[in-house]
């Protein structure tokens, strides 16, 4: 399987998990937990398949990666909540709702950037700089694929009574 295929598969699985599109409400909770675990395992497998780590590098890299992902998962949970809040009222958005949404989206983007910056020294301490750069490229590509899928699904906000954009 090519790297592009692996990344695309991961993005699709992550999107389904993030938005909770995994079945009827009664089965959704347990299925969602399984889907999230599978997506996280796929994300880790994608990183592993593309990092070309030596055994020594791997033994040092994966604990830092796991801590990084734990921090990012908290931000993704926040992003999912923001998306669900928007979905609940996107076609009847008030100015206050719009302000709150935009402020939260920007805060989420900043939180992701803050975590990325926080972990650069930790990754640099355990693997060569080229591989640190490669990791961030992989991470950014996965995130871009997920964001592209989300952008295609999330409708534009509408004021009450406003006609949907064409």
Short description:
The chain is mainly alpha-helical. The protein has five helices and no strands.
How is this structure best described in words?
By secondary structure, the chain is mainly α. The protein contains five helices and no strands. α3 runs antiparallel to α4 (95-124). The longest helix has 35 residues, at 55-89. It is elongated and about 60 Å long. Mean pLDDT is 82; it is low at 5-13 and 16-26.
Number of strands: 0
Estimate the mean pLDDT confidence.
82
Q: Could you say which structural class the secondary elements and strand pairing correspond to?
A: mainly alpha
Unreliable segments of 5+ consecutive residues = 5-13, 16-26
Helix content: over 70%
Query: Count of helices?
Result: 5
Morphology: elongated
Report the end-to-end length measured between terminal Cα atoms.
38 Å
Radius of gyration: 18 Å
Series of H and E elements:
HHHHH
**Could you tell me the strand content as a percent range?**
under 5%
Largest sheet geometry = none
- Oligomeric state: single chain
SSE arrangement:
Layout: H1 3-19, H2 25-51, H3 55-89, H4 95-124, H5 129-153
Helix pairs in contact: 1-2, 1-5, 2-5, 3-4
Note the main attributes of this structure.
elongated; 0% strand; 166 residues; 5 helices; single chain; mainly alpha
């Amino acid at each position: 399987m090519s790297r592009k295929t692996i990344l695309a598969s991961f993005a699709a699985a992550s999107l389904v998990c993030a938005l909770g599109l995994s079945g009827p409400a009664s089965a959704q909770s347990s299925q969602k937990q399984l889907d999230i675990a599978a997506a996280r395992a796929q994300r880790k497998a994608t990183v592993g398949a593309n990092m070309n780590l030596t055994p020594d590098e791997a033994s040092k890299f994966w604990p830092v990666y796991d801590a990084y992902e734990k921090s990012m998962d908290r931000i993704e949970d926040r992003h999912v909540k923001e998306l669900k809040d928007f979905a609940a009222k996107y076609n009847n958005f008030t100015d206050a709702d719009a302000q709150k949404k935009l402020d939260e989206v920007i805060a989420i983007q900043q939180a992701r950037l803050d975590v990325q910056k926080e972990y650069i020294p930790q990754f640099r301490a355990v693997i060569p700089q080229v591989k640190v750069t490669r990791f961030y490229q992989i991470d950014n590509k996965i995130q871009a694929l997920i964001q592209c899928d989300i952008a295609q699904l999330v409708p534009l906000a509408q004021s009450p009574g406003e006609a949907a954009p064409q």
